[in-house]
Amino acid sequence: MPHPLPSPTTPAASQERGRAVQRVTLVAIVTNTLLAIGQVIVGLAANAFSLVADAAHTLSDLITDLMVLVAARRGADPADKNHPYGHGRIETAATLVLGAVLGAVGVGFLWSSGLRLQNMEALPEIHGAALAMALLTLFAKEGLFRYTLRAARRLRAPVLEANAWHARSDAASSLVVAAGIGGSLAGYPFLEPLAAAVVGFLILSMGLRLCWRALRELIDTGLPEAELQRLRATITATPGVVGLHDLRTRRMADKVLCDAHVLVDPRISVSEGHHISDAVYLRVRAAHPEVQEVLVHIDPEDDGVLQNMAPGPLPGRPEVEALVSELLAPLALEPRRVQLHYLGDRVEIEVLLPEVPPAGLHALKERARCAIADRPAFRRITFHAHIAP
């Protein structure tokens, strides 16, 4: 039994998955080619036109198999300048097309069954050899369906799963043909259109579900709430993470892309915030192999709340440093470091100074208090200094 492939979180793993999808698809192509040839030969020889029509349906599978093959090759291509997130959406588009094909096949069965029910007396007599070929096709198609579906779930390839259900639709077609041939031989010709109607509903339903799944992915539908809760738990358990908001996810074929706004202590350094961001990224990738990309935005506070505050423009570093220089000018001091904290809708300033006499520090604080009294953008100015004896 083949072992499951690792999650395609690297280009090499993604390409290996693409090759595996191609191998499965090539098996389908060879099977459909042999079956179509056999159906045409036996159908013409046995005067079984329904078997010839089923061969045409099998040939339509060849076209979709080739579509899957191309999608698997292109979908495994690494990211490039024009496709920075990779080419996984090619699989999604192919799944949408195959779902539409399944829906059309289902409608075709319903239409055909209606016509046959109205014209049962016009059904031709069929040779018994056609029944054997129809049954052989049925078992081969069912086997191909199970093989492809198992591979699709192992590889987490929706486009391959769509192709598997297309194989099942062709198996259903062969079942209809076999039922029709058997019914004709047994004297019950009504069985063929009745079976066609039932199978048509099933195929149409599956095609609509596949189309809906692909459309949800194309419009960037997020993960279910249960999976989001698992992601939230992983992120909030990371050391240094204070909170989490604006978690967004979307699918791209078998991969998941994630954006997260992570709340941290507002007074830590930029490098520590970056370290926390890296820790979140590595933890999510380790605990959730299906997540290929994690964009972590470090926030000192919930910026969703700040948007409701609608703050005005806050002063930048040049304006702040000019104010600090103005305050220090009477003491002829140069700051060792000026640290800014943009919290809420105002700015907090921390100034690290060399030694300052007690009287000078007191006067400096008083000047600072007066300076920001008429500047609502400033919350406070704090001075850190050694007190000179």
TrEMBL record:
It is a multi-pass membrane protein. It is found in: Membrane. Keywords: Membrane, Transmembrane, Transmembrane helix, Transport. Its main location: membrane. The keyword Transmembrane applies. One of its GO terms (cellular component) is membrane. Signal peptide: none annotated. SUPFAM superfamilies: Cation efflux protein cytoplasmic domain-like (SSF160240), Cation efflux protein transmembrane domain-like (SSF161111). The chain crosses the membrane at residues 24-49, 93-114, 126-149, 194-212. Residues 26-219 form the Cation efflux protein transmembrane domain. Coiled coil: none annotated. GO terms for molecular function: monoatomic cation transmembrane transporter activity. Pfam families: Cation_efflux, ZT_dimer. The keyword Membrane applies. Residues 223-301 form the Cation efflux protein cytoplasmic domain. PANTHER family: MITOCHONDRIAL METAL TRANSPORTER 1-RELATED. Belongs to the cation diffusion facilitator (CDF) transporter (TC 2.A.4) family. This is Cation-efflux pump.
